[in-house]
Write a structure and sequence with these properties.
By secondary structure, the protein is mainly α. α2 packs antiparallel against α3, α3 runs parallel beside α7 and α4 packs antiparallel against α7. It contains eight helices and no strands. The radius of gyration is 27 Å and the shape is elongated.
C-alpha cells in the first residue's frame, strides 16, 4: 500500500509545469525581473535586498521550467535577466552615460545576488541533467533486455559462448559468403 504524499509535495504538484524553450526562459526571466525591478523601485525605493531575494526564486523557476533540450540556457539567461531588472533600481542621472555607469555600479555592488541566483539555476539544471541521463540509461538498459534472444536483433545466448571462445559475437550464426 502506498503512503500518501506529504502536503508540501501535493501543493508543489499543483503548480504549473510549463516547458519553455531557451529563448522563452530568457524572456520569462527578463520580463519577471524587469517587473520586480519596477515594483521594487515603486514600493521599496529600490531596496537591493528585496530585488536580490526575489531574484533567487525567479532563477529557480527559470531553471525548473526550461525544456530538457535547453537546460544549458538557464544559467546563461538568468544573469542577463538580472542585468535587465536592475536598470530601474540602479539610479543614475545625467543622460545615457550616467545611466550606464549606474548600471555597471549596481551590477558590481549586487554581484553576490547575481552569483547566488546563477548558482541556484546552475545547480537545478545540473540536477535535472543528471536525472535525465540516469533515466535514459535505465530506458536503454530496459530496451536492451527486452530484445528476445535468438531473433538476431540483439545478443543471444550464443554471444556469450562466442565471446568466451574469442570470436566476435554473431560469428557463424548467419549464412556464409564465399571468399573473393
Amino acid at each position: 500500500m502506498r503512503r500518501p504524499a506529504p502536503p508540501v509535495v501535493v501543493a508543489l504538484r499543483r503548480f504549473p509545469r510549463p516547458r519553455l524553450t531557451g529563448l522563452g526562459a530568457g524572456l520569462f526571466a527578463s520580463a519577471a525581473m524587469l517587473v520586480i525591478g519596477f515594483l521594487d523601485w515603486l514600493l521599496f525605493d529600490g531596496a537591493p535586498a528585496v530585488f536580490g531575494l526575489l531574484f533567487l526564486p525567479v532563477s529557480a523557476l527559470t531553471a525548473l521550467w526550461v525544456r530538457r533540450a535547453d537546460l544549458v540556457t538557464a544559467p546563461i539567461s538568468v544573469p542577463i535577466a538580472f542585468a535587465v531588472g536592475v536598470v530601474p533600481i540602479a539610479g543614475g542621472s545625467g543622460g545615457f552615460g550616467g545611466q550606464a555607469m549606474a548600471l555597471v555600479t549596481a551590477l558590481a555592488v549586487h554581484a553576490g545576488w547575481l552569483y547566488g541566483g546563477t548558482l541556484v539555476a546552475g545547480l537545478i539544471t545540473s540536477i535535472r541533467k543528471v536525472r535525465d541521463m540516469g533515466r535514459r540509461q535505465r530506458a536503454a538498459a530496459v530496451a536492451r533486455s527486452a530484445v528476445a534472444p535468438g531473433t538476431g536483433a540483439g545478443p543471444g545466448p550464443g554471444a556469450t559462448q562466442a565471446a568466451k571462445a574469442g570470436a566476435r559475437p554473431g560469428a557463424g550464426t548467419g549464412p556464409r559468403r564465399p571468399a573473393p
